[in-house]
Amino acid sequence: xxxxxxxxxxxxxxxxxxxxxxxxxxxxxxxxxxxxxxxxxxxxxxxxxxxxxxxxxxxxxxxxxxxxxxxxxxxxxxxxxxxxxxxxxxxxxxxxxxxxxxxxxxxxxxxxxxxxxxxxxxxxxxxxxxxxxxxxxxxxxxxxxxxxxxxxxxxxxxxxxxxxxxxxxxxxxxxxxxxxxxxxxxxxxxxxxxxxxxxxxxxxxxxxxxxxxxxxxxxxxxxxxxxxxxxxxxxxxxxxxxxxxxxxxxxxxxxxxxxxxxxxxxxxxxxxxxxxxxxxxxxxxxxxxxxxxxxxxxxxxxxxxxxxxxxxxxxxxxxxxxxxxxxxxxxxxxxxxxxxxxxxxxxxxxxxxxxxxxxxxxxxxxxxxxxxxxxxxxxxxxxxxxxxxxxxxxxxxxxxxxxxxxxxxxxxxxxxxxxxxxxxxxxxxxxxxxxxxxxxxxxxxxxxxxxxxxxxxxxxxxxxxxxxxxxxxxxxxxxxxxxxxxxxxxxxxxxxxxxxxxxxxxxxxxxxxxxxxxxxxxxxxxxxxxxxxxxxxxxxxxxxxxxxxxxxxxxxxxxxxxxxxxxxxxxxxxxxxxxxxxxxxxxxxxxxxxxxxxxxxxxxxxxxxxxxxxxxxxxxx
Length: 621
Description:
By secondary structure, the chain is an alpha/beta fold. The chain has three domains: about 5-215, no CATH class; about 220-410, P-loop containing nucleotide triphosphate hydrolases (Rossmann fold); about 415-615, Rossmann fold (3-Layer(aba) Sandwich). It has 20 helices and 24 strands. The strands form six sheets. A six-stranded mixed beta sheet has the order 1-2-3-4-8-9, with helices on both faces. Strands 12-11-13-14-10-15 form a six-stranded parallel beta sheet, with helices on both faces. A hairpin with a 5-residue loop joins strand 3 (about 75-85) and strand 4. Helix 1 (about 10-15) crosses helix 3. It is globular, with a radius of gyration of 27 Å. The protein starts with a strand and ends with a helix.
């Protein structure tokens, strides 16, 4: 998608006569089905007028220009791209990221600054880092730039700012990013014009622009090699027994499907700790090494962002979300690895999806459509929200609808909970989620499970394990409100039990955070996460050596009926509270997720005495 493409001569006229924003808005309505927001419209009007003056000043009158160009299989859009030839007749394109910013402030996060955007001071990428990522993404995934002979460069233009050496954007810690992708302020128009002319002075940009717009998405060999090296460099990813059977089966399916149109669906079922994610990441490394166009996708932002951090910014182009594949053509992807498939939604539409872009296609069908081979890793008992519809049955029926051959695998070997199948089985039995052979926890497998008498004891136990060098986190059911941060970025102590109190992990939309507060996505991996209570949405998909769980009053054992009672009045989860008859089952699944995060141990504090007594009764004393 792009909102504007044409000659720079026409663009300058549109910008100087203040009609460019209206043209983009008209195209936006046609594409999205509704008007752009006022802030976006004003940004177009202001920034593109400045860009028009720049292009005219640089005398770039025989060039192509693309505005609001959407990156392949991404919701991100470039502000502007100019195309043309250099004096030596080399074909080139230059990305220009436009910023209306005023003053910026330092951030404690690498590659970031803080500035006033969206009615608040927020942590944002340095423009050189941001536009550099766009450049690398296109060079890695767009055939025009790695196979079509078009050179690519990228700069940012902060047109409302004047240059000051003391400005945070030019601080020494950003020097590498600035060297790779220069930043120009409004009083550096001559320097920016010179930069553009070095690459575009000979004009003839329309054929180059057409080549960019007509080219296809496919990862370059360099990107695949890089992804393979990064993923395979994680030495802890070792496959054993049934895991290796799944791995080899997927590799065989990839080979067999490469030159065929027949689709394959592989369904890999396994409970917590059976190594689903380990297999998925090993597959990404080996598939990339062998030159397949493989993608890894989940429905969890925290999990995906942590994987992206592991593999690095460049390889992260291959790690996406379930809702990323609406624009994909049939069989665009060779192998699509779908981790945590229990988090599938009914469709990829959200409340932000414009009416014109909404689809009746189920998300599971959309994913199978996009790939030759789709590999779904699933735990049928981990869906914790009413809009999470992923089940083995749903996937099997979708495979049948799409005329795809399906293979089903069961993972049973336990690699979490000290390798104790019995503990996970006991949790399922105790919560009434499944009839298992373990109604009583005998504690003979070396897994440290304890029920504690107070929240202070639970907190102390978790901190003592962290002090010993183990990974440890405190988690809870969603029974306390979840506040926005204070104006200084500190968190509110929302989880209060008697005189004890602690904040939840930061909200996903928290904005500016204090230096010692990790963003929501990295609560599980940042050592400072020990000072916040994690909810299921930030803990799911991760594991710790030791986990502490606060079981709130949203799920209680009723001795009179000898059954579990889910109490929506004790829940602060607005979506789950509205789930009606599903509520009790969803809260059970929530606690199952939390109780099975530990590799070596799990410590629990119950808010309800009757529930504590019931669970203690199911433990061999």
